[in-house]
Design goal:
51% helix; 307 residues; alpha/beta; 12% strand
Length: 307
């Protein structure tokens, strides 16, 4: 499977009581497909999978697939502390017709690279679907290092890796030594560098509420080959990336961003809490400036192209 484009890890909208709001999720999916995103991910950390029961995770995956149909690829997240739960998610993804799996390190366990590889390969065997690995040592405690990549890379299903370590040297390593594993940007403030090193896809939570702006950066770098334009767009997006990452309020910011765009998102589930009024105002100001600036860059580019 070729991963090419913007892949949005879906939020999970909630009511005030914390219950999942399916109508709001369907509306969010329609907004993203209409905006032109290239694929959707259900069951990622942006979707708060860690605060859901297995029954909820299975039901949500099937619901999202029903809404999407075959319009864009659906990738199902399988991360869980217990391997049997990850296998259950993988088997379910195959049954409902998902296009691929997102497979990360089981959190808290801190496995060795060999143990982590065997865990991944067991999930692979359970579904026999294309896999995007998810390297996020900041949350999982360990990195998918070279021993891990050498072991799992023998499987024909290991197609890509969402690289979220934040270590730019990992980008160099993947591009140089593992070209058969597609590199996908998983660290938003390094998107330009990922594209310069050959990445063709970007898994970006911010595209939940700014899909066209994220697509604009991806298109400038991967389709137009215009890194000067890409740098201008990236510069406009950097304040947003700083706000999203500050103070551990990433999911809350993404959900409020969806509310700003007119889609109900609701509060996160505990232990997370909604943004304060000051947090909301800061995000709203940053988004207003970003949208205006990117629109101006796009308009200027179109004028130059027409000359």
């Amino acid at each position: 499977m070729q991963f090419d484009g913007i892949y949005t890890p879906l939020i999970t909208p909630h009511g005030a009581d914390g219950q999942i709001q399916h109508d709001a999720l369907a509306a969010q999916i329609e907004t993203l497909i209409d905006a032109g995103v290239h694929g959707l991910i259900n069951g990622g950390s942006t979707g708060e999978y860690y605060a859901q029961s297995m029954e909820e995770r299975l039901e949500l995956a099937a619901f999202v697939k029903d809404v999407i149909g075959d319009r864009v690829p659906l990738i199902i997240g399988t991360v869980a502390i217990r391997l049997p739960d990850s296998i259950t998610m993988a088997e379910h993804a195959a049954r409902i017709g998902a296009a691929a799996l997102l497979v990360g390190t089981p959190p808290y366990a801190v496995p060795t690279e060999r143990e982590n590889a065997l865990n991944t390969l067991a999930i692979d065997r359970a579904a026999d679907l294309p896999i995007m690995l998810y390297n996020y040592p900041g949350r999982m405690g360990v990195e998918m290092g070279e021993e891990f990549l050498d072991r799992v890379g023998r499987s024909r299903n290991i197609c890509a890796i969402k690289e979220s370590s934040g270590d730019i040297n990992r980008v160099h390593l993947l591009a140089r030594d593992y070209p058969h594993i597609q590199m996908s940007c998983g660290m938003d403030d390094q998107a330009l560098e990922f594209f310069a090193w050959g990445a063709r896809s970007w898994v970006c939570a911010g595209s939940n509420f700014l899909p066209r702006e994220h697509i604009a950066l991806w298109r400038a770098c991967t389709r137009e080959g215009d890194f000067d334009k890409g740098r201008r767009i990236m510069s406009a997006m950097m304040p947003l990336m700083r706000v999203l990452e500050q103070g551990g309020k990433f999911i809350q910011c993404v959900k409020h961003g969806c509310e700003m765009m007119g889609n109900h998102a609701g509060p996160p589930r505990p232990p997370l809490r909604p943004l304060t009024k000051d947090d909301k105002r800061e995000l709203e100001q940053v988004v207003r400036v970003l949208k205006r600036t990117v629109a101006e860059i796009e308009a200027t580019s179109q004028v130059r192209a027409a000359e």
